[in-house]
Amino acid sequence: MAKKQRQSNSFLLHLAFFLCASSSFSVSSRTLPLLHSFEKPIFRSNFHTIYDTSKYGVFQLSNGLAQTPQMGWNSWNFFACKINETVIKETADALVSTGLADLGYVYVNIDDCWSKATRDSKGQLVPDPKTFPSGIKALADYIHGKGLKIGIYSDAGAFTCQVRPGSLFHEDDDADLFASWGIDYLKYDNCYNLGIPPKKRYPPMRDALNATGRTIFYSLCEWGVDDPALWAGKVGNSWRTTEDINDSWASMTTIADLNDKWAAYAGPGGWNDPDMLEVGNGGMTYEEYRAHFSIWALMKAPLLIGCDIRNITAETLEIVSNKEIIAINQDPLGVQGRKVYATGKDGCAEVWAGPLSGHRLVVAFWNRCSKVATITASWTAIGLESGIQVSIRDLWQHKVVAADAVSSFSAQVNAHDCQLYIFTPSTIYYSVV
Ligand SMILES: *[C@@H]1O[C@H](CO)[C@@H](O)[C@H](O)[C@H]1NC(C)=O
Ligand SMILES: *[C@@H]1O[C@H](CO)[C@@H](O)[C@H](O)[C@H]1NC(C)=O
Ligand SMILES: *[C@@H]1O[C@H](CO)[C@@H](O)[C@H](O)[C@H]1NC(C)=O
Ligand SMILES: *[C@@H]1O[C@H](CO)[C@@H](O)[C@H](O)[C@H]1NC(C)=O
């Protein structure tokens, strides 16, 4: 009895330390190994293998941005080249009136096609006078006046993908121009790149942006061709890991898997970018869009809405406004969740998970099978000791679905749907000793 008593005392001490460590967590106290406090008696030793963070924050572009993944809107997925200053302004208005801006969607990003086909006589880029007659500076002022930020687009090549002038060898001039307009974000594409490797073409724009003295988010878009996760952390605040997304289940699932490979490299300052959201564009079902949004949030992907916000449906707004899921994406721990295991025919019943601040886990049950499936998370497979009690909150139903689950948790998931949970391990009950 006495022995047992001593054991539980030391256990409580351990626990006190553990809770302390959890509440004092902050960006500045982040050290490697990052997940050192995710330890016994709650977490299994396989935890650190499942959620490898060995490359987290090894490189950082220290411009102070991207402490959490960027959120906002981009014109490409819905409008492609059919943009003009009216659409951009109305979108800014809609971000505010729908409440999306208050939820964190603050970047209003103009993609390709904003500039004239040629530079002016002084070699400067010029906004297309037909579609942006008031110029980009006036648009930036309008957007800033709403408390939002403005993004623009260029290309690390001779031309943009839509054959407007590119910024390769014009980095300093173009960065100065962007800064003079009040630009806050640059998406930098990869067309007409003259066969020069990305590692040579992307750093000059980083340096040019830095030299302007204006803090500008630098979003690399080299389509994952040169494995940017391995080097781009020193160059940009996010880097595309794949080709362009399109508004289909096939594209979205393929891209999710490709992006998953680089999970260990994401972290505050630099994020893997599996491309912008297609939610609301009509090519997928409600369940598929829910899955898209859930997995992008869990993967710490940029949340850049790609539909026409001026005409957003209640259903789409419900998906992208889910505060609990946005909080997963913006969690200060900043560890990318990943596919942990798959069961069923061709492994189509998937469990994705990741660590969150406060010693919690985000867990997704993603049914990529063509029929309804029962998906199970066993504690040992997601890195928890099996005797630990876990409280489980469903982030789509917005309620606790199990207060004290032990050992495993199962749920039925419709075809192509995804259920997203927060698992909070209990610190009160332990079956050990
Ligand atoms: C601006 O673009 C939108 C969307 O493509 C279009 O509906 C509208 O007619 C355009 N307005 C002008 C003035 O060109
Ligand atoms: C420029 O780079 C330096 C060194 O990384 C950094 O401290 C500074 O904040 C950067 N400035 C801007 C405007 O990005
Ligand atoms: C969309 O992406 C999928 C998967 O990569 C591809 O098979 C399909 O051809 C693409 N569709 C279009 C219209 O580009
Ligand atoms: C608004 O969206 C609906 C479908 O949700 C579509 O039928 C309609 O044409 C859209 N209106 C505009 C102005 O784009």
Automatic annotation (TrEMBL):
Molecular-function GO terms, alphabetical: alpha-galactosidase activity
Record key words, sorted: Disulfide bond, Glycosidase, Hydrolase, Signal
Reaction(s) catalysed by this chain's protein: Hydrolysis of terminal, non-reducing alpha-D-galactose residues in alpha-D-galactosides, including galactose oligosaccharides, galactomannans and galactolipids
Signal peptide: 1-24
Pfam families: Melibiase_2, Melibiase_C
Keyword Chloroplast set for record: no
GO BP, sorted A to Z: carbohydrate metabolic process
E.C. designation(s): 3.2.1.22
Domain Alpha galactosidase C-terminal: 346-422
Signal found in the keyword field: yes
Family in the record: Belongs to the glycosyl hydrolase 27 family.
Name the UniProt record assigns to this protein: Alpha-galactosidase
Organism ancestry: Eukaryota, Viridiplantae, Streptophyta, Embryophyta, Tracheophyta
